[in-house]
Amino acid sequence: MNNLKFRINKSKDSVWVDQNGYxxxxxxxxxxEKLKERKSAKIAKMAITLHEKxxxxxxxxxxxxxxxxxxxMKETGTEPKLNRKGNYTWFNFDKSVKIEVxxxxxxxxxxxxxxxxxxxxxxxxxxxxxxxxxxxxxLVMNAFQTKRGKLDVKKVLETISYKDKVNDPLFSEGxxxxxxxxxxxxxxxxxxxxIKDENGQYQNVxxxxxxxxxxx
Length: 216
What we know:
single chain; alpha+beta; 2 domains; four-stranded antiparallel sheet; two-stranded antiparallel ribbon; 44% helix
């Protein structure tokens, strides 16, 4: 964020410069505008400083996690994975500090292809209503129910595992379309730090600016 720049007008300046580059005599600047100028400048500076500190912390946590992971794999005679996914947790010696890591690869679907897959599955269900396919019917219907306008990725992907079990051309076409619709986004890493309180309960050290509680 080093390329971010903002102007700080000061009360001692004879003129202030607005967003259009016009010079406004300081005598025409109201008290509230002067207050907003001071406060916004301080907030901006603090935010940029904190952002850089958080970047530094995240970089250190990532490096530490990789070192711990490699050390544990080496001690246990296990080959380290280069493309790590999933969740894992580790602790300090007396377990007063807990580090949680979540590495995942978000999946989205091509809307048109997933709609085509849904039509193939519907056609399959219309042609294969029997007690034998009741479980598959429920699976498909649940998979394509939306919640807040979004599909449950896990349920949609579950249909893929039924391709050989169902062994039906229409169902297979639907599964193939689901596979084509998959769009994998860049993997993301989430880290959480927990510390035990005086009651022995883990409390999350919240690093989310919006969710941090402060005294009123």
